[in-house]
Amino acid sequence: MSRAVPFTKAQVRRAVKAAESAGLRVVGVTVRQDGTIRIETGDKAGAAVDAPQKTLAASWDDA
Fold first, then answer.
1. Does pLDDT of 11 surpass 70?
2. 37 in Cβ contact with 54 (< 8 Å)
3. CB of 40 within 8 A of CB of 30?
């Protein structure tokens, strides 16, 4: 016997879109069996994978 799904894809899309509209960076979504949709966000200026790391110069000559 199949059980009704307590959420739809459209509800998840709306929740993600609302978070992004609020200026948040969505990094994950968790949907629980009771239908609760949790949007996981990260900082907007998160470090990119390919971003070069800035190092401090040891002296004025290194800059």
1. yes
2. no
3. yes
- Cα gap 11→24, rounded to integer Å: 18
Please provide the size of the chain in residues: 63
CB 30 within 8 A of CB 7: no
Question: For residue range 13-22, what is the model confidence (pLDDT) as tens digits?
Answer: 999 999 999 9
Q: Count Cβ atoms below 10 Å from residue 4 Cβ, excluding itself.
A: 4
Cβ 20 vs Cβ 4: under 8 Å? no
Contact by Cβ (8 Å): 42, 29: no
Q: Rounded to an integer, what distance in angstroms lies between the CA atom of residue 5 and that of residue 36?
A: 11
